[in-house]
Structure formats: C-alpha cells, structure tokens
Amino acid sequence: MTENSYPNRWLIALAGIVMQLCLGTVYGWSVFTKPLMAAHGWSNPQVTLAFTICIGFLGLASALGGYILDTKGARRVATAGGILFGIGILLTGLGDKMASLPMIYLAYGLVAGLGLGFGYITPIATLVKWFPDKRGLITGLSVMGFGIGALLMTVFSPGLIASFGTTVTFYIFGIIFLLAVCASAQMMIEPPAGYSPPGWTPGAKGAATAGMTLGEAVKSKYFYLLWAMLFINVTAGMAIISQASPMAQELMSAGMSAAEKAAKAGLILGIFSIFNGIGRLFWASLSDKIGRRTVFTILFASQAVVFYLLATTTNLTMFIIYCCYIYLCLGGGFATMPAYAADIYGTKFVGRIYGWKLTAWSAAGVVGPMLFAQIRQSSGNYQQALFITAVALAVALILPVLAAPPKEQQPDKAA
Known about the structure:
The chain is mostly helical. The chain has a single domain, classed as MFS general substrate transporter like domains (Growth Hormone, Chain: A), CATH 1.20.1250.20. Helix content is about 80%, strand content about 0%. The protein contains 16 helices and no strands. Mean pLDDT is about 85; it is low at about 205-210 and about 410-415.
C-alpha cells in the first residue's frame, strides 16, 4: 500500500465515533430503572444487576476481542460487536415483554455485554495505530462518542417509553444499533506495518513503534498499577451512572408526578452525558501536554473532594454540578488510559493488552453499581456509599506515584 492509497484516517475516526455513540447508550440504563420496577414489581438491585452483568461481560469481551483483533483483523471484531449488541437490545425488549428477569440478564447482560466489549475495543486499538502523533486527542475523540451516547437514551427514551412502553423502546433502539454499528464496522481497517503520518517522525518517547507482548506486559508493575487506576476511577463513575436517575428524582419536588420526575431526570442525565463526552476529549488532550500520570493525580484528588461534598448536599442544583464533574472525570480516565497503555507497551499488540486492562471496567461495573444499590436498599440513602468512595479516591492518589515511568522512557509525557 502506497502513501497515496492510504484511506483517510479521519474517516476511520468518524466511523469509530459513530460506533461508540451507539455503544455508549449503555450508560443510559438508569432511565429504565423506575419504569421496569413499576411495571414488574422488581427491586432496584434486581434491575441494576442487568447493567452490572453487561459491564462485567464488556471487560471480558474486550480482552477476547483484543486478541481476535490482533490476529484476525479489526473489521471482523467490530462487525461481531454490532450484531451482538443490536440483538442483545432487541432480546431485552422481549425479556421485558415476558416479564422475565433471567431473560433480561441473558439479553442485556450477556449478549449485549459481549457486543459492547467487541465494539468498544476495536476503534481504540485501531485509531492509536493510525494516529501515533495524536494519541491523547484521538482516543479522546473516539471514546467521547461513548460518553455522549447516553444522551440518545436519556433524552429520547422517556418520551418513547411514555408513548410506546419500554418493550417497543428497546426494539427501536435495537434495530438502530444493529444497523449503525455494523455499517461503521466496515471502516475498521488497520494501517500497514511501519505506517507513519506524513511529516511525522517517531520520537524516542514512549514505544510508538515497539510492540511489547501480553506476556511481557503482565510481568511489569505498570500493568497492575494502570489496572488499579482505571478500576478506582471507573468504580466511582459507574456507581453514579447506575443510580443517577433515581438519585436525581429523590431530590425533586414532592409535588411533581412520577412522569414529570422521569422526564426531568432524563434531561439531567443528558447533561451528564455531555460532560462525560467533553471530559474524554478534554482530559485526553490535556494528557498530551501535562502527562498521563498528572492527569490521573488530578482526577483522584478532585473527585475525592467532590464525592464528599455530594454526600452532604440535598440541593438538586448542587447535585447536578457535582455529578457533571464526576462524569467529566469518568470520561477523562477512559480516554487517557488507552494513550497511557500505548505509551508504555507500544501499539503492535495494544489490542490484546488494553483489552485485558479493560477487565478493570468489568470489576468496577460490579462493585460500583451493586455497592450503591445495596447500601441504598439497606440504609434508605446514598450518603454512606458516597463517603466510602471519597476515601477510596483519596487513598488511590498513591497509584500514580508508584506508576512513575523509568527515566529512560518517560512514557506518560506527550507522545
């Protein structure tokens, strides 16, 4: 392949953003929490478990998908992800119609979760190879779509649910996702070996042209430190995401009807998703300038304070402000970590290495949502869980310190 025959890398980036936009609707799951509880008499933890299972399988599928991507190609993995995710959402609607929690767990948790993992890892692993000169920026753009994707669900779902019910709403989104993700997947092709953007020469920083194997990666301390950093940041954010709609509705005026509260909560979650997306671009781009470690230090320190303040507020406006910042930081962690991994391990096998690192997302998807749901169920409020999260974030400040790169590499600086 000659330089002039290379596809436009920005079109590949655009396709990746469309994929992530659809997949990111998983973050809007909480808009279905109260409607499903009211329709079937299920508890909050029972409904939340579907989201937890989905995120759990996301990480496992990312690990598997990253390996397949490195051996069989990105297009196959992305297409499989689109098929599984779309069918999973369609089957979730069937589970709702059947009033079957096991069916919803199987459909949304297992099938959609597998599709989510295959689809999520592909644009990230592909684009860091096309954009070695803009790692932070391009991973930020890619996963920004995932962060904003919840806007589709939170803005449009309340009206669709009110007009057609939850079952038909799942059917509508399932068809859209099946078509859109599979179409975008066809653009997921990898650059030829040794590719460099015109006018760019690989520097000494990071491992732009190197390729540490998975076996070599797991023998280094960075694999576990970066895993822990991602786990802590995602646990905090996922806990809020899973309960954001019910938490907001509890702070609304008692005079509002359930439908009015649900509609207002949907708009609030839409605002949150915008900040999630902005955070992915903002923090990832900033990491190109100040370093990946510095970004994670700021994320942990500032969120520790914000979670403490969130636990003490009963004001809806302040709740929105605090949550906007938490969503901003959640997105930032997701967007910065792929560039961090590529800096350290190189891009040759980044699909399988970062795929395994995303098991931190799976673990966080279990711990965060279930911790908040169970504490809310037993205590009647979220304060205790919020305080625990604030302490965990403060303790996590030691992780970026321990993750200082070797002097000869300095991988967390702009590359």
